[in-house]
Amino acid sequence: MAMEHVDVLIVGAGLSGIGAAYHLKKHCPGKTYAILEGREAIGGTWDLFRYPGIRSDSDMYTLGYSFKPWKAAKAIADGPSILSYVRETAREHDVDRHIRFRHLVKRASWSSETATWTVEAEHDGLTVKFTCGFLYMCSGYYRYSAGYTPDFPGAERFQGRIVHPQHWPEDLDYAGKKVVVIGSGATAVTLVPEMAKTAAHVVMLQRSPTYVVSRPAEDGVANWLRTKLPAMTAYGVTRWKNVLFQMLFFNMARKKPEKVKERLLGMVREHLGPDYDVATHFTPRYNPWDQRLCLVPDADLFDSIKAGTSSVVTDHIETFTETGIQLKSGKVLDADVIVTATGLQMQLLSGMEVVVDGKVANLAQSMSYKGMMFSDVPNLASAFGYTNASWTLKADLTSEYVCRLINQMDRTGADYCVARQDGDIEVAPWLDFTSGYVTRAMNQFPKQGLRKPWKVHQNYALDLVALRFGKVDDGVMTFGRKTGAKATPVTAKAA
C-alpha cells in the first residue's frame, strides 16, 4: 500500500488542530494536509473530559478563535458548548474530511536527503505511515491516557469509589452521597459546587490553598457590544478588552504581588463573610500568578460553601480507610466517593519519538525557538498556549507563523527551515511556573533562552508583533535544500 503524502501533517483534532487547518487553508491555499487524531472524535480536551460542570477557565472571547466570533451569552462556557463550537468550526471550513481518526502518532523520522518527515501511527492495532514536508504538532500538553494520581496510602482499603476526573465513569451516581474532592486547582473548584447540587455534602480537601477569583459567567460589555456592532467587530473589541485587562492584571501581580494578593483575598472575604477562616483555606503560600489563578463563575463555589452544601478542609492525608480519609491532624473525613482532582501529566509532543537523520533527538536538550520550534529540528512546529492567558491566543499566532514559514520556503525555493543556536545563550526552564504538574515535567521539555528569539514570551502583544509582523528570515532560522538535490543552502532574502 502506498504511503499517503501531504504537504503539511497536523497532529491532533482539538482546539489547536482545527484552528491550524483553518489558517493553513486561508494562508497556504495550495497546500495539501491531513490531521491525525488518536481518538475517534473531534475536540481534544473538550471531548475527553466529561466530569460534572466541565467548563473553560478562560473567557471564550480569547479562548475562541480569532476568526470565529463566540456568540453565546456566557463568556465562561461549559464543555459541551465549547465542543460544539470546535466541531462547528471544522464543519464550516470543510476540515472534518481531512481528519484520520484513531491514528495515534508514535514516531516521526526526518530525512535531510528528501526533506520529508515519515510519521508512524498506530491504527486499529497496525502501524501506518504518512509522509509530509512539514509536521505541525497540535496534540496539547498532557497525557490523554492517564491523569496524575499520587500514591495514597491505604487506597486499596477504601470501600467506596475512587474516580479521577480525566476518566469520569458514566454510571457514577453521587446523589445523596458524601463526596471528598482531593485538590484545589481548576478541576476541583469546578467539581465541588456542581456535585454539591445533589450530593449529601462535598468536601474540598487540599494540602494548600490556591487563589480563587469569581467573575460573572456573562460578559455584560460583550453582550451589549454585540447588539450595537457587526459580529466580528464586537468580537474583536471584546477580545482586545480582555487581552489588555489580563496583561495589566498579570503585570500588576508581578510588580506589586502583595497589593494584588490583598485585593484577591479581600474579594474572597467579601463573598464568605468576616467569620470564615480565609487565612487557612484561601491564602496561598505563593504570589498571584506564580501558578494559574482559579476562576469561579458567578461565585458558585463560595455560594455552595455559604449554603453548607460544600466545605473546605486544609490538611494532609495520613491514609485512606474503609470509609473515608484519616488526616494527619487526627480528623476523619467520611466518604462514599473520593475524586482525585490531583492534576495532569504533562507530555511533550504526545510522547512521540522524534528522529532526525537516523538519530533520536533529545528535545529536552534543545532550545525552544519562539516558543514553537526546537533547535536543530527541521520543519516541525508545536502549538503551545499561554500559562497566564488563553491557550488559543498563542495557538492562533503560532499557526499564522507556520504559514508564513511555509510561504517563505516556497518563495525562496527552500525545502526546509531549521533554527540554529547562535552562540552561547543563557538558559532557563521552558515555563516559569510553580504548579505541581509543571515542575514534575519540566525536565522533559526544551529550554528557553533569556533573549529573543529563544525566549518564550508569556505576552500576547509581544508575540503578536514578533509572529505576525517580525522577519521570518531573522538570521537564526536557516533555510536549505534537500541533500538529495545536491543543492547549496538557500540564502536569498525575500521581500
From TrEMBL:
Pfam families: FMO-like, NAD_binding_8. InterPro entries: FAD-binding_MO, FAD/NAD-bd_sf, Flavin_mOase-like. Keywords: FAD, Flavoprotein, Monooxygenase, Oxidoreductase. Signal peptide: none annotated. Its cofactor is FAD. Belongs to the FAD-binding monooxygenase family. PANTHER family: MONOOXYGENASE, PUTATIVE (AFU_ORTHOLOGUE AFUA_8G02570)-RELATED. This is NAD(P)/FAD-dependent oxidoreductase. It comes from Caulobacter segnis.
